[in-house]
Design goal:
The structure holds two protein chains of two kinds.
Chain A lengths: L4 E13 L4 H6 L5 E13 L3 E5 L6 H8 L7 E6 L2 E2 L5 H7 L3 E4 L13 H11 L5 H14 L5 H4 L9 H13 L5 E5 L7 H18 L2 E6 L2 H7 L2 E6 L2 E7 H6 L4 H8 L40 H5 L5 E4 L2 E3 L7
Parallel strand pairs in A: 3-8, 3-9, 6-7, 7-8
Antiparallel strand pairs in A: 1-2, 1-4, 4-5, 9-10, 10-12, 11-12
Helix pairs in contact in A: 4-5, 4-7, 5-7, 7-8
Chain B lengths: L1 E11 L2 E12 L5 E5 L6 H8 L7 E10 L2 E2 L5 H10 L1 E4 L13 H12 L5 H14 L16 H13 L5 E5 L7 H18 L2 E6 L2 H7 L2 E6 L2 E7 H6 L4 H9 L38 H5 L5 E2 L5 E2 L11
Parallel strand pairs in B: 3-8, 3-9, 6-7, 7-8
Antiparallel strand pairs in B: 1-2, 1-4, 4-5, 9-10, 10-12, 11-12
Classes of the chains: A alpha/beta, B alpha/beta.
Chain lengths: 330, 320
């Protein structure tokens, strides 16, 4: 692991068992799994914004949760700052969470509705025994002020339902930042926020990165936002990374047919600007029955015979541009 | 269709909320009108009121809706029911919950067609359903499936199929693609466009996504806190936006075709409809608000052919 890497993920897998009914359990022995994350490897450099993008069900959120160890992986290794964190015990994990935090999509669901905002934001300090009473209050007000919840005095005494969605998401940022972490996983932080407020939240995230020296793992389905915010992007499809590269490469020279289709489907805010959409056949297959060989072949417009048998690996085709496609290998 | 001075109010315990206030516009044949606004701007209420379906405790307190010489709001219940489906149809946001989970897809079509045209036999209705499914890009065999056997995109296609079953002159699509992924979204929007051309129906596309309406509609209506703040052809909205809110929105949406784009945020947040600011509803967030904006509500001002905006900046004799 090089000096610059803050996070490194190797062959990460997460399979969720599919619940069977009583009768099915009696009759069959085979167990089925949802292969939510299926052999994913990538690394995040210090200070960058690394984006995982893809459609719903591609495993991007599961990857985010695995990385901060909210759920245990089925197999694979995760390194944080050169230390393997996949095998840490409870106490060590607790210490780790001071350094890595996660922000969720729905800022309403992620706050306890009976806890005032000030309490909720200060709660991590208490859990980690870092500050109490006056000191805690002081730090809560400071951080609220910093994320743009002003006047902090007033808002810290409100309950989550008394705030707007944008303010709640800011409060979620404050709660994540109060432990002064180095690494933040932001899972669709703006997708539930009104359009006119989104830009402000994104700008806040960018400013905080500068001021606190943060590294983000940004998870989104919206490639337009991904383009605005990220340094490097990984496109996921059915639990696998199909293309990974820095922002200019992904957007100006997408190699994987899926990335091309995804990019061509994004609406452009220009009238009568009908983009030529790259046609994709059908729908995303179920993650329980993943097609053999290349998992994208059932929808790919240039799939060949070989794609049925050979599962493509994520290989570099130029420095810092990786593609998992049998056709790109040649 | 013409809508004149439409006002819809919700009477809640905390007070009256004017979700839609003083809306006037007209819709031409085979036109796509994009209605864009944030949550709480009244865009869905507007859509629902067009088919007389404002949910309790809302009621239409003022205004007229005229559809093909008929006044929608004065119709009796039965006539209104006839009108829905035949003349004007609604595609809801969530395709997961708008189909009946215990009925096959075919049964949905049969019920709809036979309610409006009782003389049609079940066989004939099913035959028409098959053709409709083909039109929306689903294999006809799917008629025997239950809704849960279809994917989200396919369910939305079925909803669209149901909406066009009786060949209505207007289809209102309320956030038809919000619950769907981008690739499916593009396909559904293409489908709506194609059907509009094929059947010659007018389309009202309600969404929060300005990119979609800019790309897909002929005219755009921008809503803010219950008011129509700007109404113009989409080219005008794009190249010559008048209202500061529209200008702000345009600056805050990312465009993947531009290399290095600087986005600008609109300060503040949308107002509480129970506690609206005095004067113009947008002034607390406006970069060019002046004294008068705080006192009086601006009227809808014409700023060129077919371009209307609700802002004092464009009043007669005032240079913007």
């Amino acid at each position: 692991m090089s000096q610059n890497e803050i996070l490194k993920v190797e062959h990460l897998k997460k399979y969720f068992p599919v619940e069977k009914s009583f009768i099915e359990k009696m009759l069959t022995r085979t167990r089925h799994f949802v292969r939510a994350v299926d052999d994913v490897s990538f690394s995040v450099l210090k200070g960058e914004i690394f984006t995982l993008a893809g459609e719903s069900g591609c495993g991007k959120t599961t990857t985010g949760k695995l990385v901060v160890r909210l759920i245990p992986p089925t197999s694979g290794k995760i390194f944080f700052d050169n230390v393997e964190i996949t095998t840490l015990d409870h106490e060590a994990l607790r210490m780790l969470k001071r350094r890595m935090q996660i922000i969720f999509q729905d800022p309403y669901a992620s706050f306890n509705p009976r806890m005032k905002i000030g309490e909720a934001v200060g709660h991590p300090l208490e859990i980690h025994g870092l500050a109490k009473h006056d000191e805690k209050r002081k730090r809560v007000l400071e951080i609220l002020e910093r994320v743009g919840i002003t006047p902090a005095e007033k808002f810290s005494d409100l309950y989550p339902h008394q705030m707007s969605g944008g303010q709640r998401q800011r409060a979620a940022m404050a709660r994540a930042l109060i432990l002064q972490p180095e690494f933040i996983v932001a899972d669709e932080p703006v997708s539930m926020i009104d359009v006119s407020l989104r830009t402000a939240i994104i700008d806040l995230m960018l400013n905080l990165r500068k001021d606190f020296g943060l590294t983000y793992l940004f998870i989104t389905h919206d490639l337009a936002i991904a383009k605005y915010i990220s340094d490097r992007i990984a496109i996921m499809y059915l639990g696998k990374i199909v293309e990974l590269g820095d922002k200019p490469t992904i957007f100006s020279n997408p190699m994987h047919p899926y990335t091309q289709a995804l990019l061509s489907a994004i609406p452009v805010p220009v009238p009568e600007r009908k983009r030529k959409t790259t046609e994709l056949i059908g729908d995303v297959p179920s993650a329980i029955n993943i097609p053999s060989g290349c998992r994208f072949r059932t929808r790919c417009r240039c799939a060949e015979k070989a794609c049925e048998e050979k599962e493509p690996e994520l290989i570099p085709i130029s420095p810092d541009h990786y593609v998992a496609c049998n056709l790109a290998e040649n | 269709m013409t809508v004149d001075a439409l006002t819809v109010e919700y009477w809640t315990r905390k007070g009256k909320i004017r979700a839609v206030e003083d809306m006037s516009f007209s819709l031409e044949k085979a036109e796509t009108l994009g209605v864009v606004g944030e949550s709480g701007s009244g865009k869905s209420t507007l859509g629902l009121s067009l088919i007389g379906l404002v949910p309790f405790p809302g009621r239409i307190t003022k205004g007229k809706i005229i559809l093909k010489d008929k006044e929608v709001l004065k119709l009796r219940k039965d006539d209104l029911r006839n009108l829905r489906g035949k003349e004007i149809c609604y595609v809801f946001q969530d395709p997961m919950t708008s189909l009946n989970p215990v009925k096959k897809i075919g049964a949905h079509f049969v019920e709809l067609i036979r309610t409006h045209e009782p003389q049609v036999t079940k066989q004939e209705a099913l035959k028409r359903a098959k053709k409709l499914l083909k039109d929306v890009g689903i294999q006809p065999e799917r008629l025997n499936d239950y809704p849960h056997q279809l994917s989200g995109g396919m369910r939305q296609r079925v909803m669209i199929g149901l909406a066009i079953a009786l060949n209505p002159s207007i289809v209102v699509a309320d956030e038809p693609t919000t619950a769907l992924d981008v690739i499916v979204q593009a396909k559904i929007l293409d489908l709506l466009n194609a059907l509009r051309d094929a059947y010659g129906m007018a389309l009202i596309l309600i969404t929060h996504d300005l990119s979609i309406v800019l790309q897909r509609s002929d005219r755009i209506m921008v809503m803010y806190a219950g008011h129509m703040v700007e109404y113009a052809p989409s080219i005008e909205i794009y190249s010559n936006p008048k209202h500061p809110y529209t200008q702000g929105l345009l600056k805050s949406i990312p465009n993947i075709e531009l290399a290095d784009q600087k986005l600008e945020a609109i300060s503040g947040s949308p107002p509480d409809l129970l506690d609206l600011p005095k004067g113009c509803r947008f002034w607390p967030r406006c970069y060019c608000a002046f004294e008068r904006c705080r006192m009086e509500a601006p009227p809808l001002i014409t700023t060129g052919t077919e371009h209307f905006t609700r802002c004092f900046l464009y009043e007669e004799g005032r240079k913007a």
